[in-house]
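lol forgot to send this yesterday, sorry. struct tokens for the thing we talked abt
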């Protein structure tokens, strides 16, 4: 009896800008694209919120000064902590839609989770 297992996966290799990219066959599940910029912003938002809640800083302005960024930008990023958990999970898993970008997420959005989806 042999311990060798062979798996056949129909893929195509394409060159893009000197790099090889795998193209999956039609009907294959979509490739997950994790937006590292968006994930980093979420991580910062929750870290900043934790610091404010713990009383390490009295105001957003104080924390923004320490971080070396504008308090208006920090306020917009902190709003990401108000996103529905389903949306946060989708972003972290790379399942967010193509229209979900950091620039779009920093725009005002409804506070009710059901309205966000």
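and heres what i got for the seq, position by position
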């Amino acid at each position: 009896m042999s311990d060798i297992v062979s798996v056949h996966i129909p893929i195509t290799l394409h060159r893009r800008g000197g790099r090889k990219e795998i193209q999956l066959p039609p009907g294959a599940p979509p490739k997950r694209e994790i937006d590292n910029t968006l994930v980093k912003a979420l991580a910062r938002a929750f870290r900043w919120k934790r610091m404010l809640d713990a009383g390490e800083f009295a105001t957003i302005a104080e924390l923004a000064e320490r971080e070396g960024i504008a308090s208006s930008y920090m306020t917009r990023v902190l709003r990401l902590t108000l996103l529905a958990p389903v949306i946060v999970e989708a972003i972290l898993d790379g399942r967010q839609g193509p229209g979900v970008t950091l620039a779009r997420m920093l725009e005002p959005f409804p506070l009710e989770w059901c309205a966000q989806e």
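The helical segments are 36-53, 60-67, 71-78, 85-93, 102-105, 113-116. anyway ping me if u want another try
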